[in-house]
Amino acid sequence: xxxxxxxxxxxxxxxxxxxxxKLIEAIFELFIPLITADIIDTGVNQNHDVGYVLRQxxxxxxxxxxxxxxxxxxxxxxxxxxxxxxTEVRNAMFKHINKLSHAxxxxxxxxxxxxxxxxxxxxxxxxxxxxxRLVIRAPFLVLGAIIMAMSIDIKMSLIFLAASPLIAxxxxxxxxxxxxxxxxxxxxxxTVSLISRENxxxxxxxxxxxxxxxEQSRLETQNDELAQTAVAVGRISALLNxxxxxIAQAAIIAIVWLGARFVYNGDLTQGEIIALVNxxxxxxxxxxxxxxxxxxxxxxxxSAARVNEVFDTVPSIQEKSSESISVDExxxxxxxxxxxxxxxNNGYALKxxxxxxxxxxxVGIIGGTGSGKSTLVNLIPRFYDTSEGNILIKGAxxxxxxxxxxxxxxxxxPQAAMLFAGTIxxxxxxxxxxxxxxxxxxxxxxxxAYDFVYQNPxxxxxxxxxxxxxxxxxxxxxLTIARALVSQPEILILDDSASALDFAxxxxxxxxxxxxxxxxxxxxxxxxxxxxxYADKIIVLDKGELVGIGKHNDLFNECNVYxxxxxxxxxxxxxxxx
Length: 578
Hints:
Layout: H1 12-46, H2 50-99, H3 102-108, H4 110-135, H5 137-152, H6 154-201, H7 203-208, H8 212-237, H9 240-265, H10 270-312, E1 334-342, E2 348-357, E3 362-367, H11 373-379, E4 388-393, E5 396-397, H12 403-408, E6 410-413, E7 422-423, H13 424-428, H14 437-446, H15 450-455, E8 463-464, H16 473-486, E9 491-495, H17 503-516, E10 521-525, H18 529-532, E11 537-542, E12 545-550, H19 552-558, H20 560-569, H21 572-575
Parallel strand pairs: 3-10, 3-11, 6-9, 9-10
Antiparallel strand pairs: 1-2, 1-4, 4-5, 7-8, 11-12
Helix pairs in contact: 1-2, 1-4, 1-5, 1-10, 2-4, 4-6, 4-10, 5-6, 5-10, 6-8, 6-9, 6-10, 9-10, 14-16, 19-20
């Protein structure tokens, strides 16, 4: 947690004012037993003076009112600092996550990141609030109670000096045993979050395969493991209150037992015994608070480690400079030079690829499942870095480009069509915030989305739910294509983004792209021969290797892999272009 203190630098006032106010409240609280002793000894036993009792009682009430005022100031300070801290950590983590490359995101996992940004940061917020409200107050009350007891009687204070370390030892042992369990709990929460997310996003698939019972069983198993771990740590934590009570109550018994003798001998008064008992009770109640703090800070410690793990994750893809670089317009717009790439611990997904793409060309990429088609196009915008070789955009290595300059050149439509909550218009303006209606409509027409958008009474203001759940698969794909076209990129990458379209719409889309985007370089990834057969150039991949490149007819005659793909989808007489 100490490493996260940088997020508290804007709350120095609250971090100072809160504990000071709580300290003043504690000082007032420490005087209460002395005033009680004075009322008993002076106002009741000696003088039987009701007026004196009332005056001292009024003074106690006044101390309580002032203590309440200081406590409220502390509470407000703690709320401002803790909520502000949580907001800054969450914003910083979100910003850092957006800097991570796909490799790091794949490694940590979306469910884990969600848990860290919600549950873990909430634990840290609570710890900051308790830090301001109680961390200073609790030890001060214990130390103050011991000093006050010593001011009453040194001998009796030995009981306090014996009891306090014993209670502290119990707290330490409980904390020492609890920390590993809380770390396990957070990891198991990640697993539960993963299963929940899969079930919510894949609900239709689960129902289609009648897997509700097995998924329910899967979730129950993980929940049971989470519950068992929580019960295990709960058993340890449950020892806190009984053990501290036993020690404190034993100390109170000793005070009353020995105090009775001192009162009988005239060494102590009845009021002083009551004060000593009150001070021991204060220590007991404070230790109970401390025991709860132990649990809170133990959880926060585990959460802080998980949050710091995200901050410590260094993006494997770094930009060398934010300054735009100069490019060469005379060379091919994209060049692959002996490019190889492999995912962590999975061998090579692409091997020794070399080819070039000219400006304005339409290029099709085809191959069997797992041949590396999506991996190839993910290397162009530098979502991943090559393991070997170089990728050049307009003569400059993609590693030399600032991210903004590189990705502004591209419009990317991923396999999974993703729309965001809002309206169709707000989704169309993702790539170009100030895009006007004419630009949006042109993109919609090219993407074959104009008709279904304007058939709806709300037109561009039609509400889109999160993920585009209120649209069909084909509608979502056409809208994501239109969104990429609005910004008029130099390179348009369509990663199997027409798979949900019927053949007529797919053909109309390809025709429109060819006619309306003549200066745009279009890269189409597909498993359909019909989608790529009219491309200026077709790249054929097989098990990560380039096995053919050229036009449709030439590849059919010369590339066995392409020929097999063609014959698996088309009749022999339909294969060759005429």
